[in-house]
Amino acid sequence: MRAHKFDVIVVGAGGSGLMAALYATKNAQGSVAVISKLYPTRSHTGAAQGGVGAALGNVDEDSWEWHMFDTIKGGDYLTDQDAAEIFAKDVIDAVYELEHMGLPFSRLPDGKIAQRRFGGHTREFGKAPVHRACYAADRTGHMILQTLYQNSIKEGVNFFNEFLVLDMILEEDADGGQVCKGVIAMDIASGELHTFHAKSVVLATGGNGRMFKVTSNAHALTGDLTAIAYRRGIPLEDMEFYQFHPTGLYKLGVLLTEGVRGEGGILRNGAGERFMERYAPTIKDLAPRDIVSRSMYMEIREGRGAGPNKDYILLDITHLDPKIIEERLPDIADFSRTYLRVEPTTEPVPVNPTAHYTMGGIPTTIDGEVLWGTQNNEIVHGLYAAGEVACVSLHGANRLGTNSLGDLIVFGRRAGVAAAKYANENALLPITDDVARRAEDLISRTRNASGKESVAKIRAEMQQSMQDNASVFRTEETLSAQVEILRGLNERYTQIGISDRSERFNTEMIEAIELGFLLDNAETLVHSALNRRESRGAHSREDFTERNDPDYLKHTMIYRKEIGHTEIKWRDVVLGKYEPKPRVY
Ligand SMILES: Cc1cc2nc3c(=O)[nH]c(=O)nc-3n(C[C@H](O)[C@H](O)[C@H](O)COP(=O)(O)OP(=O)(O)OC[C@H]3O[C@@H](n4cnc5c(N)ncnc54)[C@H](O)[C@@H]3O)c2cc1C
Q1: Which pLDDT tens digit goes with each residue over 59-112?
Q2: Are strands 32-36 and 2-11 parallel, antiparallel or unpaired?
Q3: Where in the sequence numbering do the catalytic residues fall?
Q4: Which domains does the chain possess?
């Protein structure tokens, strides 16, 4: 066992982790390290395409208040309004900061950062779409990640790459609360466990889309730290709100950015009709994602899908100038050519909704402090979270496109600053000799697993059943069925067998561990969804089709009692000047 000591540890090297690490380094008196299971520039942030939303007003008039309002309405009023206000104001300056760090944004003829339209982003509180997404062609996330990584190297951040975090060092403190003293990670190259002892820890480990069959998410997005937090008694917030992005390539789920519609792309049904005019008469194809994804499935259900089996929708950009496509959307044009052999400049592209983003996650205050209870003062001392793994809650029941990249830089920065401040003000607390016991057990149990069940089969059944029972539409019946399916899969998971017993790069063992994390994420989603008997944002119950503010204008906080058994508590939504109204576009 190897042991390390740092002032601040950041787990995850995507946009949120690197932003936190940069700011922790600038503010901490001691050392900062980032631990990442992937080489940093392979983090999913690098796959983000369309843009980062900020009210710069470079193309048309814009204001942070309109952005704040759009975010809250987009979140179906479950968004905490204090978080939305900080976000809409701070993201402007955060985008300029990225520009000054060297990020090569696409430009307008006058040299300013180019901006395009995106779903749910409007001017004057819903009047018309606004150009708010700052972009670097359709490689915005790639540019953000490279820029932040280069700057982290420049600032002297320490990196432990290809280290898989398996547990947190979490203890009760004197007054019955909790304190985090570091993490335990396995060096993937050697299989050796390392103890990372720290004054404060920031979790920035991204999403969990791999619990669904058709997803835009990379293979590594297995919800590791949401599962670890949940196992260790930390609640997860609003896990029922899972976003399906309208335009994934048919059957594959590979994402075609909403920027395609921002540039003028149109969704058509099998009859060639622009059906979004019926569902969202004002902003049509640029309605928020929950609404567009549902509308697409309604068209398919009613027999108006495209193709021989009428089971997909068409994304049409044939009317756009091919020069604009090559300049602003080069990657998505290539995806469609490479994966579907469709030439997007002359034929419409077959698409369907794809599992994309979790609005829920580890609950935090606006400074990234992780909660163990339902109140803002019930925080785990020394533990912070930011980015997709966290739930601030900025996105409420449905995230607007471009608001995740903004979330990473605004709340990643705040978490980094807060974690550094905590480290400066607190001593390194002692840890006991057995801190790695849980992680050791997990590894030896998994590496030596010799049962009959196959990891790949359980994973495939989980992904297919989650897609069938807990995706865009849900009912009591499908969710209850899914609770039982997951119980069965969990049972079988205890009987898995793996064949590779080696220490080095044991990816078979890692996949088995990740499947355990995914099953826990699925459990929290399904139980939370069953408990919320209303429809709001991305959570659409066919047996409770209306939003129900009197009973459910509150955040779900799910705790694990034992595997398959949960307890749900509620947390108040931070309301403010924008009162809940019917959500029409
Ligand atoms: C295809 C695609 C396109 C997108 N386009 C946009 C867009 O245009 N605009 C927008 O706003 N949003 C977009 N999003 C969403 C946005 O990109 C993500 O929500 C965001 O990048 C997540 O960043 P993150 O820092 O939270 O995590 P990630 O970038 O996913 O990074 C997670 C990090 O955690 C590490 N990690 C995970 N588990 C462990 C573990 N157990 N131990 C150690 N390290 C671990 C990984 O190595 C990685 O470094 C897109 C998402 C996808 C999938």
Answers
A1: 999 999 999 999 999 999 999 999 999 999 999 999 999 999 999 999 999 999
A2: parallel
A3: 289
A4: 250-345 (3.90.700.10), 437-537 (1.20.58.100)
